Amino acid sequence: MSNEILPLSVVAKRLEHCSGYEFQCILRTLKSPKYVNQQLLKSDLSVLIAKLLKLLRSNDDYHVWKGCHVAAVLCSYNPVVLSSHADGLLHVIYSKVEQKAQYYSSTVGTPQGKVTLINLVRTIGILMDLVRGKPALTREALTPKLGAIIPTLVSLSQFEPQLCLPIIKKLLLRSTTTFRPHINKFRAVLLNLLLKDYHHFDKSTRRLISDCFAYLHLIKQNVQAKDDNQSHHKSFQDDNWRMGLLSILFQFKPVISLCNELLDFNADSDMSKLVESLPKPPSGTNSFEEIFPSLSVDMNSPMTLWDIVERLSTLVDLTISFISVPTPYAIRVPLGGIISVCETMLALTTTYLPLQRGLRRDAELTSTINDIFPQIQWQAIRMLNHLTGIYGKCVLAHLPSLIASVESFIPLKHGSMTVDLDRIQALRGAFVDVFELAATWISYMGHSFDETTFFTKLVEVSLCLTDDINPLNDMFVVLNRNSRKQAQTKKQKNASKSYTGSMSDLYSHPKSFVCRSSLRVFNAVNKFLITICSFVRLPSNQQIKVIKNAIIIAVKQKAELGYIPKSFINLLRTLVLYPGNERVTILPIAVTLLKDCGDDVFNAICNPRLPMGAVQIVEETQALGADLNSATIQYPEPSSPQTLESSEHAEVDVNKGSELEHSMKCDVQEDIQMTEEETKATGIVTVDKITTDTTKIFKKRVIESEESNEHPAAKQLKISEPEEVTNTVKEVILETDLPASTSYQKGGPEDGDEDDDSEFEIPAIELSEDEDD
Predict the structure, then answer these.
(1) CB neighbour class for 758 (10 Å; exposed up to 12, middle 13-18, buried from 19)
(2) Is the dihedral of CA 685, 691, 696, 700 positive or negative?
(3) Are 338 and 251 in contact (CB under 8 A)?
(4) Beta carbons within 8 Å of 530's beta carbon, 6+ residues apart
(5) Which family does it belong to (predicted)?
(6) Which tens digits make up the pLDDT trace of 394-451?
(7) Closest CA to 451 of 492, 414, 493, 404
(8) Of 110, 317, 369, 688, which is most buried by a Cβ count within 10 Å?
(9) C-alpha distance from residue 461 to each of 184, 465, 469, 573, 574 (Å)
(10) For the chain, what percentages of helix, strand and coil (3-state, to nearest 5) are there?
């Protein structure tokens, strides 16, 4: 293959006029490491950089767009270009961004202008990330230009926060000193975003705004002279950070106290204690600033009550940012104060606190109140979830009270302790966070959990959330009730058709209107069930419901998606390994469902791989071969009990077991008087014969085991027939634990080694002294 590369002069010529796929090919060509050559700086690279700068200075948005991509690729894959031309490229690009930002309205008036602005800002972020961390480049190319780049990005962030805030966030963390002159202007931009447009942005942009607000407290703005009485106290690096966090926590109490106008706190003494335990600024201090103005709520306009939820949601987001973003130094977090705020917000529920008496008659106000308090509780669960995930087991000291507080979030039917499944469907997103929080707690505590009521309710809720929602059920119930009360006339039916449209699909295809649960809900529920089944023994009825639900949904997911999601595979595996109090396993069903997946756990359970005894088996086989290949087999003396059978009966057919028993009774004396010469004459067996008959030994053992099962009476033989034996012979009793055929095999001429330690032996026959005479 040729090592020739495309000359950069050719690339420079085509760069201005290329488009489409040709431009993509040029970008792939510039990624080649063969262009990383310092000798090209004076020739081809200088020509290419000149052409690139011309594109970036152009008034054509398309040329600027191409120049941004070429600059990003060259600096990312060519360290020579980054080291030699990063300064010039940064200067040209941020000048272009400054020009676009000054005329923002006209720039974003066209789609081409907005795309060009986005690429310019992203290219600045890429170049700054590439330069940062390299001492010489940072000192010469980046730091001198930050004074011009930061104000441009700050002014642009009020219009494009999702575009500029990621870059500003890095500058706040890594270039704190350089950012100090612009801190007040950026604070004003962030406060404007927090107060007016915060909930208009998506979730990621809201998190960027709150993170940047937290990072503002890395910079000390006003250095005040210390009080002489407090001068002996040690100062910490995180003093400014801690003051910012406390100023956020102090603003929870006024908002929560406002809820006392809706719920009667005096009905529960514990609620009053919780409100009093909320963090509040020390008396006589004005060092804590109030970020948000006071709320304005009108009882005559119930929709204004949602401002309470909005304010608490913003405060929770800011608190999460303060406790979760990375900082250059260690910070002190008031865990007790944060947990106190969470417990108080979770206690705001109409299940245990009654409404104020003057509000109970207004249906609109009552309905709004019943809707906003579950949302307030959800904000507390979000904060607890982040707190537990970050600080882990530091929260375990408060776990008993937290479990009781989170349990109050589960809606119950009026006047009973039964879970209200109808209200749960409206809180799907909130219960996803509850499941994640509960799974984290269980994983920390393990089998030491004593609380079961809370988890029993959560299991019931989880099984409810996995069901599909059919919004037509309530409508059908109402229609059935109305049809029983009154019948419409033909004229009324025709009039109703004129403004209702086509309603036939509601009755003919009601399943097409079903709202199915998302995979995110399934994953959260399965993770919770996996954790609780691993550490907690559920009641039998709930364990059966979990098993049934897991199998049914897994079958549905396989039919719809063509595969079973990973969370269901883990759940089925857990239900097999932890069956709880059930004695029936679902292993066959799980293996059938996952036969296409090839699960290793189920393969090991169905086909257990026991330790191999290959070495031991080989040694036994070699020992057996050595015995068989030995010289002439020697047999014991005639008086030995092994001479009960001659060599020609060494291999006895199993079917002749009864004949052998009869021959033992009748021919005992003849066998005893067999001479040693006859035994040797009939007992000489060649090595070849033994080698060829080795297979019969193993076959014979199998047949003998079957014979022992078929003739259990042959295990004990008793020869006690004095009428067939002379008076000089005593009664002989022969007892053995194996059939007669086994005895002859072990005592036959094929197994006559005296050193054999076989466990099958025939006891000796005792003869009287009169017979020897």
Answers:
(1) exposed
(2) positive
(3) no
(4) 439, 567, 570, 571, 574
(5) Belongs to the RIX1/PELP1 family.
(6) 888 898 899 999 999 999 888 788 888 888 888 988 999 999 999 999 888 877 776 6
(7) 404
(8) 317
(9) 48, 6, 14, 22, 20
(10) 70, 0, 30
The CA distance from 686 to 693, in Å, is 11
Do 31 and 11 contact (CB within 8 A), yes or no? no
Q: How far is CA 580 from CA 215, 534, 541, 575, 628, in A?
A: 49, 9, 11, 8, 55
Cα(260)–Cα(575) distance, integer angstroms = 46
Amino acid 550: pLDDT: 93
Q: What is the DSSP letter of 716?
A: B
**What is residue 403's DSSP assignment?**
H
CA dihedral 68, 71, 77, 83 (to 10 degrees): -140
Our CA angle for 175, 181, 183, nearest 5°, is: 80
Alpha-carbon distance 335 to 245, whole Å? Answer: 11
| Tokens matching residue 154 | 């700050």
**Pick from 5, 89, 78, 13: which is nearest to 47 by CA?**
13
Distances (CA, A) of 26 to 3, 6, 74, 692: 18, 10, 11, 78
Q: Hey, what are 62's tokens?
A: 């398309």
* Length of the chain in terms of residues written: 773
Structure tokens of 54? 């011309």
Side chain identity at residue 119, one-letter code? N
Q: Is 342 exposed, middle or buried (0-12, 13-18, 19+ CB in 10 A)?
A: buried
Q: What tokens appear for 107 in the block?
A: 């720039």
Rounded Cα gap, residues 136 and 383, in angstroms? 43
Centre a 10 Å sphere on the Cβ of residue 581 and count the other Cβ atoms it contains: 9
Q: Write the pLDDT tens digit of every residue in 576-632.
A: 999 888 777 888 898 888 887 777 888 888 877 766 655 555 455 555 555 555 544
Residue spans of the chain under pLDDT 50:
1, 225, 488, 491, 495-496, 498-499, 618, 631-758, 770-773
Q: What is the structure's pLDDT at 2?
A: 52
Tokens of 23: 């431009």
Interatomic CA distance for residues 74 and 72, integer angstroms: 6
d(CA 418, CA 453): 12
CA 755/CA 257 separation, integer angstroms = 96
Query: And the tokens for 185?
Result: 């202007």
Q: Please report the pLDDT score of residue 234 as a whole number.
A: 65
DSSP character at residue 362: -
DSSP category for residue 226: P
